């Protein structure tokens, strides 16, 4: 199954050349090797394998099952947000507020539940509404003003960062929320968002399962639905897409709301894992999500990418972050590795995109 698609107007396939006729260069098929290289996730797959093998050799502790479970968990916390961010990037936009939006969602659920002494599921539902509203606001502002998504979401980032700190201090008198672990509904919510299960004596977090399920769903949407066609179309050329009947406004806004949905889920995981939330967290995480999508083959110019690529991109992040610790190195090297991976991915993606369009 191919995981890369280019948004192109539908066209009638030309008739196959008859016996004794040779297809010219315009109708000849590209070789299998070239078609494989042109897939956006191939580069990051090779990179992820190289990083995995490197740390298997450099950090023997990684070979332990519990260590790999930690790597997958770390990868899943990044990957759950990297998926909607990647879809948004394929649609030609990106969101700088996604990191603090995760904390906004967690703060909302915690304070609504604790301060109003309600079942935690009420806070979860209110947080979902708030997260979707943030995404709706970003998309609406983008469409309404015509401003670049960089400026729109930078403004939202600053607003949420200030609101997170100010409202939390005003409501709780502290920079963190209160512990909600003894409230009604907590155990059930924790089972959904932050539980774990044993696989061969190794504890695996439920977020790993959600991450892979979300990736499979996103892949199906991109490759098998009309909405997936719209995403590629608006990312490739929104004016051309609008001319052939693609609902550009709906597609752009819904993609921002998908990022809000991802922020809600990630926020709920954080809340029910640690029972409390620090209001100043989340700053800088948006760059991690965007970098995972870029490393996964998504172009900043839009119209190209996959949902599988960011899965491998997030795995590379988790592998490097945990691998450095298991190798006993200075964790400050993580940022250096991150920069090298990002620059390498950009160069590979540039080469892949040129290969994909070369006849």
Summary of the model, kept short:
With 359 residues, this protein is mostly helical. It contains 14 helices and 2 strands, in the order αααααααββααααααα.
What does it look like?
- The chain has 359 residues and is an all-alpha fold.
- Helices cover 68% and strands 2% of the residues.
- It has helices at residues 32-37, 42-58, 65-90, 98-115, 120-145, 149-172, 186-193, 206-224, 226-236, 238-243, 248-274, 285-295, 308-326, 333-357; strands spanning 196-199, 202-205.
- It has a two-stranded antiparallel ribbon with strand order 1-2.
- A hairpin with a 2-residue loop joins strand 1 and strand 2.
- The longest helix has 27 residues, at 248-274.
- The two termini are 22 Å apart.
- Residues 1-28 have low confidence and may be disordered.
Strand content: under 5%
Which structural class do the helices and strands define?
mainly alpha
Overall 3D form: globular
Order of helices and strands: HHHHHHHEEHHHHHHH
Q: Order of strands across the biggest sheet?
A: 1-2
The unreliable regions are: 1-28
Whole-number radius of gyration?
Answer: 22 Å
Overall strand count: 2
On the 0 to 100 scale, the average pLDDT is 86
Count of helix runs: 14
């Amino acid at each position: 199954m191919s995981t890369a698609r280019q948004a192109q107007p539908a066209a009638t396939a030309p008739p196959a050349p008859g016996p004794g006729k040779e297809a010219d260069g315009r109708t000849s098929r590209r070789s299998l090797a070239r078609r494989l290289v042109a897939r956006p996730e191939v580069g990051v797959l090779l990179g992820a394998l190289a990083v995995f093998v490197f740390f298997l050799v450099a950090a023997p502790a990684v070979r332990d099952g519990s260590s790999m479970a930690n790597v997958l968990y770390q990868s899943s916390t990044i990957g759950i947000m990297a998926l909607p961010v990647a879809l948004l990037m394929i649609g030609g936009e990106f969101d700088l507020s996604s990191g603090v939006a995760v904390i906004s969602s967690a703060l909302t659920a915690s304070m609504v539940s604790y301060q109003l002494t309600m079942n935690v599921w009420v806070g979860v539902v209110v947080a979902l509404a708030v997260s979707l509203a943030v995404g709706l606001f970003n998309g609406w502002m983008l469409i309404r003003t015509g401003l670049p998504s960089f400026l729109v979401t930078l403004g939202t980032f600053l607003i949420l960062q200030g609101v997170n700190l100010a409202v939390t201090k005003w409501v709780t008198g502290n920079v963190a929320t209160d512990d909600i672990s003894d409230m009604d509904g907590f155990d059930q919510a924790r089972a959904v968002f932050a539980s774990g299960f044993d696989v061969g004596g190794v504890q695996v977090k439920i977020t790993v399962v959600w991450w892979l399920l979300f990736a499979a769903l996103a892949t199906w949407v991109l490759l098998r639905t009309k909405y997936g066609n719209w995403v590629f179309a608006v990312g490739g050329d929104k004016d051309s897409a609008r001319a052939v009947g693609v609902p550009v406004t709906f597609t752009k806004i819904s993609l921002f709301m998908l990022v809000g949905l991802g922020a809600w889920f990630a926020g709920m995981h954080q809340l029910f894992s640690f029972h409390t939330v620090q209001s100043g967290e989340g700053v800088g995480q948006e760059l991690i999500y965007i970098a995972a999508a870029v490393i996964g083959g998504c172009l900043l110019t839009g119209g190209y990418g996959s949902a599988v690529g960011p899965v491998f991109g997030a795995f590379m992040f988790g592998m490097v972050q945990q691998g450095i610790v298991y190798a006993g190195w200075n964790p400050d090297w993580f940022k250096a590795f991150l920069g090298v991976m990002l620059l390498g991915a950009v160069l590979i993606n540039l080469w892949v995109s040129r290969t994909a369009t070369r006849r």
